[in-house]
Amino acid sequence: MVFPPLVEPVAELTDAERTRTARHRVLAGFGDLAQRRLAAAHVAVVGAGGLGSPVVLALAAAGVGTITVIDDDVVEASNLQRQVMHRVADVGAAKVDSAVRIAADLSPTTVVRPVAALLTAGNARELLTGADVVVDGTDTFATREVVAAACDELGVPLVWGVVQEFHAQVTVFWSAPPAGTVSVRLSDLYPSDAARDAPSCAQVGVLGALCLQVGALLATETVKLIAGVGDPLLGRVLVIDALRGRTDEVPLRPATASAPTAAAPTAAAGAVPAPPATADPASPADPASALSPAAAIPQLTPAETRAAQRAGALLLDVREPFETARGVIAGSVAVPLGDVLADPSRIDAAAVVVVCQVGMRAQRAAAALRAAGVEASVLAGGIDAWNRDPAAVLA
């Protein structure tokens, strides 16, 4: 469904901007009018990291008139693998400063409003008011809840994406879409409070190139909404499995049959790495299935893990060598996750307790082992949980 454009166009572009955006202006169904709408638009990008970086680059290059970039963090060396807006010389500087510099280099007419602040429930409405579209590029579900709640209250479309390891999801939430369109909120995709234990990218990693792919999709959805072209992802979730080179789509409906369509917006609740209600949770292309605990796989405490080991179970540590070099559980065997997934039959044991840093990679290894006929369980919380146990010892 094509939605009406979100903004009225500016009267005209400068000669320099017409030349710079010439390839947009000759697009069939886009043209000069859509480009002038972009010039009039105000987009708020929350987060200037792995997703926010390519979004800012793409929107500035596209000729969006105003971009508010909200992030309280500074650039770290470990960001540079995926946060392409920053440079080595930026390490230690505010991330929003990179947005100001890079946008000026790409589009002199684009105004970047840097906000070096943490977006919270107390300031979210104030910071996002005035934006025609909000793009969520944050890296914690707690902040995503806050962003979604503010957008629901303001009735502003929220272009949303999440990346973890080799998987991603992209969609659009909108509490007050055009008449005749069903509203979809973050809480329709992820139930409230279920994301509290979701691991961070620092714990389980993320493919840098995938951030660019997802950021480009977020920017494209934003442009479509502003210009009133194409079919936005409202009511649909794009699901990406980078390892398999596979992109799928699942429908997303309101969580309850009585969900409002274009009524007064309400606050969205929380998010958790779990599949949409309409998705097939067993689908290998669904990143949520790889992120959410499977009820069929036993989750053991550190005490239960020690008991299983004494009873003859193999403790299989699926972390990478640089991680196991910092310490392993005595008597465990280290085999990186990729090797286990490539050939589960290499693990010659009747019973296995799989260990990783926080439990998510162990979950995937255990699922593969159980499919191969091995009785596999997981150390819940991984090495982090083990280290918090008074009786735990690392070799």
From TrEMBL:
Residues 251-290 are annotated as: Disordered. InterPro entries: Rhodanese-like_dom (IPR001763), Rhodanese-like_dom_sf (IPR036873), ThiF/MoeB/HesA (IPR045886), ThiF_NAD_FAD-bd (IPR000594), Ubiquitin-activating_enz (IPR035985). Residues 309-395 form the Rhodanese domain. Residues 254-272, 279-290 have a biased composition (Low complexity). Pfam families: Rhodanese (PF00581), ThiF (PF00899). Keywords: Nucleotidyltransferase, Transferase. This is ThiF family adenylyltransferase.
